[in-house]
Write a structure and sequence with these properties.
Elements (H helix, E strand, L loop, with lengths): L2 E5 L3 H13 L3 E5 L2 H10 L4 E4 L2 E2 L2 E2 H8 L7 E5 L4 H9 L4 E4 L4 H12 L9 E3 L2 E4 L4 E4 L2 E4 L2 H12 L7 H8 L8 H15 L5 E4 L3 E4 L3
Parallel strand pairs: 1-2, 1-3, 3-6, 6-7
Antiparallel strand pairs: 4-5, 8-9, 9-10, 10-11, 12-13
Helix pairs in contact: 6-8
Length: 219
């Protein structure tokens, strides 16, 4: 599971790609122009960015150069520009991968998985104490028992498992787990935490730090 931003002005294509990736349990956000893409990249964190070259109000390469001044998420250029010179320019600008249209959805998904295998590892099982998380199936194994969580609850727990010693404020957790255009609230976060504790029958798996936020419990 990852949070992915797609910046592409082809609305039909983007919807197909987003639908495919969401079925693989990713959180997907969309920008159809350069301005919206810059806004989301400057205000949210993503695990992967899928970026078109030709946008109605700018160049994907220009966005990439701008983003690389501070942003570190892996970027896949997804474009119809297939010339070697274009590939060279895109990769030199900071792209981690380059895929030309038309393309196979399975190949795009495989390339995303390859980027996510870079540290921190996203697709491998995570363990802490008696728990094992399997992102591919959204399941939590507790001893011999397997519990399947809804995508948002699993994403919240997975994020905390990946940062076991850190305390996160509510707004940070919502930015990492909820879509940016969703109506995320502190109440919805508290509800998700409550549901995780209830379903796993463990009130200590997520620790509430008064005045500071939440962290993974001492498993």
């Amino acid at each position: 599971m990852a949070k992915i931003l797609i910046v592409d002005d082809d609305a039909d294509l983007v919807q197909v790609v987003a639908s495919f990736l969401r079925k693989e349990n990713h959180v997907v956000e969309i920008a159809h122009n350069a301005d919206d893409g810059r806004h989301l990249l400057s205000s949210c964190e993503y695990d992967v960015v899928v970026l078109d070259w030709s946008l109605p109000d700018g160049s994907g390469v220009d966005i990439l150069k701008w983003y690389r001044k501070a942003g570190s998420a892996p970027v896949i250029m997804l474009t119809g520009k297939a010339a070697i010179a274009h590939k060279e320019e895109g990769l030199d600008a900071g792209a981690d991968d380059y895929l030309t249209k038309p393309f196979s959805m399975k190949e795009l998904s495989a390339r995303i998985r390859a980027l996510l295998r870079r540290p921190p590892i996203v697709n491998a099982g995570l363990s802490a104490g008696s728990y094992i998380l399997q992102p591919s199936s959204l399941t939590v194994k507790k001893g011999k028992t397997e519990i399947r969580l809804p995508p948002r609850e699993f994403a919240l727990l997975e994020f905390l498992f990946r940062h076991p010693q850190e305390v996160f404020k509510s707004d940070v957790l919502m930015a990492r787990v909820w879509r940016s255009d969703s109506e995320a609230t502190t109440d919805s976060l508290r509800t998700a935490v409550k549901q995780i504790r209830r379903k796993l029958e463990d009130d200590t798996i997520i620790e509430t730090i008064p005045g500071a936020g939440y962290k993974l419990g001492n498993l």
